[in-house]
Amino acid sequence: MSHHIVEVKNLRHVYSDGTVAIKDISFIITHGESVGIIGANGAGKSTLLQHLNGCLEPTSGSIHIGHTPLSKGTLPDIRRTVGMVFQEPDDQLFMPTVFDDVAFGPLNLGFSPADVEERVADVLKLVGAEHLRDKPPYHLSGGEKKRVAIATVLSMSPDILVMDEPTNGLDPFARRQLMQLLRDFKHTRIFTSHDLDMVLELCERVIVLHEGEVFADGSALEIFNNEKLLSECRLEKPLSMQGCPVCGITC
Amino acid sequence: MASIHSAVLDLKRLDLLANGTSSIHRLDARAKVLVTVVFTLCIVSYNRYELNALFPFFIFPLAMISLGEIPLLFILRKIVLLCPFVLAVGIFNPVFDREIILQFGSLGISGGWISFASIMARSILTVGTAFILVGVTGFTAVCQALERLGMPQVFAVQLLFLYRYIFVLTEESGRASRAKELRSCGKKGEGIHSFSSMVGHLLIRTWSRAERIHTAMLARGFTGQFHTSRQSNFGRAEIIFVLGWITIFIFLRIQNVSLLLGSLVTRLMP
Fold it and tell me: Which residues of A have a CB under 8 Å from any CB of B?
């Protein structure tokens, strides 16, 4: 049995004000896959992500993480298995220093102080943020905050990484650095993003959401080459697949 | 908005000062918090006409500033910021309390002026010392020390969150108010109406941010218990620091040193 499988079956979510955010979504993501979930604003991406570690409860349908159904009783385990990186790092970094923030999860999981110290040092090194260890989060730049936010999740050794708009608001260099970091991970990875070039580089598989349903699910290249499908879902080809802006030649 | 922005920068500077390595910085935060609390209690326990007995107490903030290598001007500027509030509290004393209690030749000084000066001196002492405490300890360490000294954890966590998000909230309100200024073309916009709507929006935004933070905490296994992994120890240096200063404070509180010095000088004078 693998802990790395995500299975969503006939998921439906209706907010308390009556908005149907997700009509009916089903998919299976298997061990080690890197999947991009894309769609227009309001397609249901963020709502879907919030279901994956139990931040929202489905109105109907079910979610299994590694064959364990997501329910109140299994939540603590599932939250350790599914590491969620939020879109806004300021929401995720709430402790007084970077160290405290990265240590927050492991301490909640009951690790000994020595273990926590080792883990924090390891993940900060992995994301290239050792020098930020004692800094308060509000002294960090956007790129640094993002890397530390990822470290806070990695310190809990998740099997599955879920990231909401990871490259949002980063400068080109920080974006490239972050993508390099994400490419090296061996976890099952699920991203939502409007940065389609990042999705193309990092994900073999793409799930297109449209009005709360799965509109397409397939290989990234196949989907990004289907212009009709993209325009129906208010999307475009990634810039790297569009023609040269000067001579118009497509590679 | 420039003033809010600079106030936040000042807070950040106070935070950076706490990274110093002086002998005062190295002391356990609990020792510094304890001494500051006793100091404050001594100051506020004087009656409202007491003025000269307060002056010897300046020795504590001055010693902390020099040993902790805190820039004096920076702390003075912080205290000046507070002066309008203190003025508002004490300004009516000279009006209502006109009884002359001190005579300098032909110049009579009323009880109101003395109590006003006493309020000023006490505010400068207590507020200045609080700023210095944060400058040599750091706000986080002060909260953690308070918690370890018995303050309920929920208050400590509230304070930590308040401090953490004050930066985010001021940035957000700064942006909102700049947007309003830019569109009011030098006028007052719609005055209080637009202002109240802006504050309402900020409140709602803060609310939803709080929800997101809570979700982020739950996602990382939060169950209501706040763990901190900081180790510190209350050793000999701390005990000497606490006992030394508390002895001085009690002595200054019991003996009016200004008066003693004064009578010594007048006795020595022929």
Answer: 50, 53, 55, 76, 79-80, 83-84, 86, 88, 90-92, 94-97, 99-100, 103-105, 107-109, 113, 116-117, 134, 136-139, 152-153, 156
pLDDT digits (tens, 9 = 90+) for A205-249: 999 999 999 999 999 999 999 999 999 999 999 998 887 878 777
pTM assigned to the model: 0.77
Q: Indicate the class that CATH gives domain A6-92+158-241.
A: alpha beta
Q: pLDDT tens, B112-134?
A: 888 889 999 999 999 999 999 99
The per-residue pLDDT for B34 is 95
Alpha helices in A170-237 (DSSP H): 172-184, 196-202, 220-224, 227-232
Cβ contacts of A55 on chain B, cutoff 8 Å: 215, 218-219
Residue B219: closest CA among chain A residues belongs to which residue? A79
In the block, tokens 């006490």 appear at B122
Backbone Cα Rg of chain A: 19
* Separation of alpha carbons B58 and B64, rounded Å: 10
Q: What is the pLDDT of residues A117-147, one digit of tens each?
A: 999 999 999 898 999 998 888 889 988 999 9
Query: Is residue B28 a contact partner of residue B238, using CB atoms and an 8 Å limit?
Result: yes
Residue B220: list chain A partners with CB under 8 A.
Answer: 79, 104-105, 108, 152-153, 156
Contact flag A117-B160 (C-beta cutoff 8 Å): no
- For A104, the enclosing helix (H) or strand (E) is helix A98-108
- List the strands of the sheet with A160-164, edge to edge: A68-69, A60-65, A6-14, A20-29, A213-219, A205-210, A34-39, A188-192, A160-164, A82-85
Alpha carbon distance A92, B72 (integer Å):
36
Q: Is A32 left (phi over 0), alpha (psi -120 to 50) or beta?
A: left
- The amino acid present at B121, given as its one-letter code, is A
Which ipTM was obtained for this model? 0.78
CA distance A107 to chain B (A): 6
Residues 6 or more apart in contact with residue A166 via CB below 8 angstroms: A85, A146, A150, A178, A182, A191, A193, A198
Chain A residues whose CB is inside 8 A of the B161 CB are 94
Across the interface, of B213, B225, B231, the residue whose CB is closest to A94 is B213
Mutate to test the interface with A, among B227, B230, B232 (most CBs of A within 10 A): B227
> If you ran DSSP here, which 8-state letter would residue A244 be given?
P
The percent helix, strand, coil of chain A (3-state, each to 5) is 40, 25, 35
Chain B residue nearest residue A86, CA to CA: B216
What whole-number distance in Å separates Cα of residue A238 and Cα of residue A72? 40
